[in-house]
């Protein structure tokens, strides 16, 4: 006799219940009860269990236990997995190529070409000699302690993933800004992507793709890092001065002209702030993604944890910090340049 | 001045709310603004507006905030669509325009100047001035001479390569005016264009606008809440209150014969000597009189005549228009005209 027996009998479901006698293994609680030799019936209303799936299952064997929920979810995923990867595999293949290409290019090009090119890019986007010297010094330091190739792998992955985030994130943000309905639909998805613990992304991806493929970590990074650029593009376009929009309408701009001549340029500071955040989040994720074979500094961090190699962990962690500072300074400096030319 | 009607507004209604058509019926049956808001939860924007705006004239629409003047001007290029009514520009009903026609209208035939300037912050002054041309597909090389000419005309020579945020408010609005002029549109809509400027600069800008109008003869629709500004600029003055026209016509006429206590209230504080002109207070030329103290133009304001007369109220002046004797000004009439109208006297008595 269990607590909710009377509920099922009053509903006339007694027969249905007895049909399905649980064939699964006993739960821990059942086992404990058995060894203690106690009846499952609580003594008073004080001990009344919440009518959860497990409690109801005690009274009615046909009622599913809660572990069947997680099991069902898993089986459902496994069932659609093959057809899903049939569709997703070719769609995401370019990502693998891009990542592999970037890694290959970054590592096979000799350092005396890569470093000057990076510095030139830094100078072009920031127009600041000081920042360029700082970046140069940091990279030389990393190279000097033999972390050059790890750092470049990490950088290559981040640049590819951030580029793809911008490529998809900005158009999504723009379409969100144009339709309130779409915004209502997408915001919960963004909230979920942002709050889901990063490790959780990896689990279904491991089922879908082979661990040897670079798109596995690429997708994980992109899903995690694309959120800020979408949010801030949406926000930036919505915040564009209504008066300027009205002027654009009054002078007869087409919607396309309005987008390219007014909305995007005026939203650019916000979009760039989003890009900055996206790059920083890719960096955070690329470390976690080393769990699923992403190369770079994250691998060293992982080694430090796994083998308790304190020095390796600390040095590679410091390398990540240096990369983070470089990326943040460079994107912020270019953002500041945009801001100066658009003060209202 | 029998000029062509450029813009004509007929029976225009605008009601804001979820079901304006339902509310429109109540308004047509005479429900007032407060009741409409309370019983129908709709806001009456404009009620039964009929205005003709003549070619080459400055039509000033004046009203306090909430009177619907900004709503009204946005109907002229359909930034706001009316609930009911007809808007004709050059005889065409723009309510029937397709999106493409409407865009063409906004590009080619109308330009607009905004209270908050609404310049593009990431473009230079020169590019901003050429915005209308740029929208039509011209490149900077095509409109540069034009843009430079108009920027120089509004007093911004040498500022072409600055950004709007580097300019003061008055200079930014000059860019706004240059932008409207470069578009070559015959109609200029000015939405409280000078309201955000300080008084001295505002007065400068009014003079600039009048000087430009002297040579360009555009059809200007000017919105303001400032009566002095309205009287200075207007060829035709429309006074709005709570979305309705209280009175419209020649500003001098409105000043001398206010048709409504609301207007009396409005005009009681202005400097009548500066605003009223000789033509509004002169009488018919009488042949017998010969003791003229001098000739004055019908366009002179009373202040200048007072100065000329040295305060002597017994004099008479001959009023001339282009060498032609059109009337006589008795200084007595002038003195009387300076007193706010009888209607306002009654009001101040009852108030006391």
Automatic annotation (TrEMBL), chain A:
Per its UniProt record, what Pfam families does this chain match? BPD_transp_1
* Record-annotated ABC transmembrane type-1 domain positions: 151-331
How does the record classify its membrane topology?
Multi-pass membrane protein
Write down the species.
Marinobacter guineae
Q: Which UniProt keywords apply?
A: Cell membrane, Membrane, Transmembrane, Transmembrane helix, Transport
The record's family statement is: Belongs to the binding-protein-dependent transport system permease family.
GO biological process: what's one of them? choline transport
> Which GO molecular function annotations are given, in alphabetical order?
amine transmembrane transporter activity; carnitine transmembrane transporter activity
* One annotated Gene Ontology cellular component of this protein: ATP-binding cassette (ABC) transporter complex
Q: What is this protein called?
A: Glycine/betaine ABC transporter permease
Which Gene3D superfamilies does the record match to this protein? MetI-like
Keyword check for Protein transport, yes or no: no
From TrEMBL, chain B:
The answer to whether the entry has keyword DNA damage is: no
What's one GO MF term for it?
ATP hydrolysis activity
Which InterPro entries would you find in this protein's record? AAA+_ATPase, ABC_osmolyte_uptake_ATP-bind, ABC_transporter-like_ATP-bd, ABC_transporter-like_CS, Gly-betaine_transp_ATP-bd, P-loop_NTPase
* GO (cellular component) term, any one: plasma membrane
**Where does the record place the ABC transporter domain?**
31-267
Question: Where does the record place it?
Answer: Cell inner membrane
Describe its membrane topology. Answer: Peripheral membrane protein
Q: Which Pfam families match?
A: ABC_tran (PF00005)
Key words, A-Z:
ATP-binding, Cell inner membrane, Cell membrane, Membrane, Nucleotide-binding, Transport
Listed under catalytic activity are: a quaternary ammonium(out) + ATP + H2O = a quaternary ammonium(in) + ADP + phosphate + H(+)
Reported EC number(s) for this entry are: 7.6.2.9
In its UniProt record, which GO terms are filed under biological process? Answer: amino acid transport; glycine betaine transport; response to osmotic stress
Q: How does it assemble?
A: The complex is probably composed of two ATP-binding proteins, two transmembrane proteins and a solute-binding protein.
Q: Which PANTHER family match?
A: GLYCINE BETAINE/PROLINE BETAINE TRANSPORT SYSTEM ATP-BINDING PROTEIN PROV, GLYCINE BETAINE_PROLINE BETAINE TRANSPORT SYSTEM ATP-BINDING PROTEIN PROV
Q: What NCBIfam families does this protein's entry cite?
A: proV (TIGR01186)
Tell me its family. Belongs to the ABC transporter superfamily.
Protein's recorded name? Quaternary amine transport ATP-binding protein
